[in-house]
Amino acid sequence: MTPIMPKHDAAAHVDSARIRQGRTWAELADHLGAPLVWTTAALLGQHPMTAEQARSVCDLLGLDEAVAESLALQPSRGTPPEVMADPTIYRFTEALSVYGPALKALIHEEFGDGIMSAINFTVDFARRPDPDGDRVVITLDGKFLDYRW
Fold first, then answer.
1. What pLDDT tens digit does each residue of the chain (149 aa) get?
2. CATH class of 81-146
3. DSSP per residue over the chain, as a string?
4. Taking the CA atoms of the chain, what radius of gyration do you get in angstroms?
5. Strand pairing partners for 99?
6. Where is the active site (predicted)?
7. Cβ-count burial of 85 within 10 angstroms (0-12 exposed, 13-18 middle, 19+ buried)?
8. Which CATH architecture has domain 7-71?
9. Residue 109 — left, alpha, or beta (φ > 0 → left; ψ -120 to 50 → alpha)?
10. Could you state, in order of their start, the residue ranges of all structural domains in the chain?
């Protein structure tokens, strides 16, 4: 029996097919009728897709059932250390290192003792024109979960 393709291999097939066909992540999200950031994360292996979603995107990209099977698996979430060192990704770590304590204090002041969920969660991404250089706008939208004793 052939082993199931690892999710990082499936992600490489998806990304290669997307690039070679000149498709954008937004086109793939529109094709699936799913949010842009979620779709991109799922196709890069961080979320499971339904079997129907996986087959649909693989049909669009001309990828086989082995890729679709992998895309539908439950992932082991996280990012390898070498990817975390990428300057773009590292800046997110840097931003949370600087602003994380302030955001935590503000969440506690506004909501009380608890956390922002990263499970009941959405992320939005946009480009905002600015005369000093376009701005990257990222909105993290998580449900507040209070600590209950």
1. 999 999 999 999 999 999 999 999 999 999 999 999 999 999 999 999 999 999 999 999 999 999 999 999 999 888 888 888 999 999 999 999 999 999 999 999 999 999 999 999 999 999 999 999 999 999 999 999 999 88
2. alpha beta
3. -PPPPPHHHHHHHHHHHHHHHT--HHHHHHHHTS-HHHHHHHHTTSSPPPHHHHHHHHHHHT--HHHHHHHTSPP-----HHHHTSHHHHHHHHHHHHHHHHHHHHHHHHH-SEEEEEEEEEEEEEEE--TTS-EEEEEEEEEEEE---
4. 18
5. none
6. 91, 94, 117
7. exposed
8. Orthogonal Bundle (1.10)
9. alpha
10. 7-71, 81-146
Residue type for 14, please? Answer: V
Q: Which residues are catalytic?
A: 91, 94, 117
Residue with tokens 């009728």: 33
